[in-house]
Amino acid sequence: MAARNGISDDWEHLSDDSYSVISAPTSDGEDEAVDESVHFDADVAADSSPRRESRTASPPVSTARRSAEVQTAVTAPPATALPSIVPDQHPFGPEPRDGPADTALDGPPDPFNIADYEYESDAVDELVDTHTNTDPAFYLKVLNSLAGILAETAQSERDPLALGGRSHRVADVCSPLSRQVQELTPIVSRYARLWSVAARDIPLDPNLHGWMSGVRVKLLGLQAEMQDPSRVEEYCAALDAFRKQMDDFLPIMRVDFNEFQAAHMSFAAPPPRPASPPVPTATAPIPIRTPAHRRPSHPSGPPPDMWRLRRELYRLKDEVQRTIEQLTEAASRLPPGGGPLVALAADVARSYRGVLSSLALALSNHASDWIEHDLCGGGLTHAEFARLDVEAVRDLTAGLEAVWEQEGWEPRPGEGGGGRGVLAEGQLDRLEALAEVLTATLNPERD
């Protein structure tokens, strides 16, 4: 094939651009002409613009690289506006799993899957061992939280479907625990009020925190397993064990609390006497008082604290009278052969009658009566009466109100008016404990 000396017809020069466009050859014989045209284009590029020099100065592409580019162009997906699928190795994709243990779905544990939560007694023992805070204010917060959990469990207990027919079992366990928490709350509240001034004298057992933590853990487990009858029975048995433990421990706390109350009923000391007037001298004569500076020679009445104390004692007297009436009515509903329960109810009523007599005597005494009362002995002296704690009297009144306002005192169907069911559920024990505190406060023993 003869060499070509001119520009082939396959070349076209564009007047508005410095680039050349090469057309595809029509036969195999034109490959040689294409090579010559490339050399020609390199010769012409010598007197072109810098832009053209940068284009022609690039190294030639090898055959292997050109083949790879063609292969990439063939396999590349066409341009589309649809979103592409994220590959498996995307940097924000899921992490690769190493073994069969990682095949479970990720996410928070199911609150109703007992496999994700372990409610064991070992955790309670650790709480007892590691807890060193004996501040009654902290214990009071835990008691309030425990009372809230018991209330939630009681609401669930009213739904028979939620407990799979075990609602009566849950009620039999949670009701005594609720009463124990209600009885512990005023005791711990009183300790918390005097923690700053009598921390060393407060007989608060650190094991109480372990008991509260154990009950809380078992209640949460019971709420999580309400659909499983076997698990419900296990948690009820554990809660019943905690209830029996507090039945043995609570009488000791009552005795300690009664002794503490009797020792710390007096609050503030009598106010100090006013300073003696200065002796008049020549440089400091006696000041002449004007009518505006005169004061009455006798006090206008008792101090404000005494008014508050007497008002709270009158409220306590009314509540004691109500307690005697309610207790007598409840005891009358018991059968004649009630045995120890009837005798205990009679003893408690007798104690409240003595408290009522002490209150009536203290509230009706005048100055001459106090002197005679001090000489005869028994009951409160005037100094002891003046030092009674107003807040403590208010707490005792609230304790009596709480006993009669709870639902357990209402007559229940099928119990013959409700007398036996009422007095057999622990309320009588609470009344007896309050009567002991009132007796020790209003009629202290003399040495």
TrEMBL record:
Highest taxon in the source lineage: Eukaryota
Region ranges (Disordered): 1-115, 270-306
Polar residues composition-biased segments: 17-26, 56-65
Extent of Low complexity compositional bias: 72-83, 281-290
Biased composition (Pro residues): 270-280
Protein name: Uncharacterized protein
Organism of this sequence: Pleurostoma richardsiae
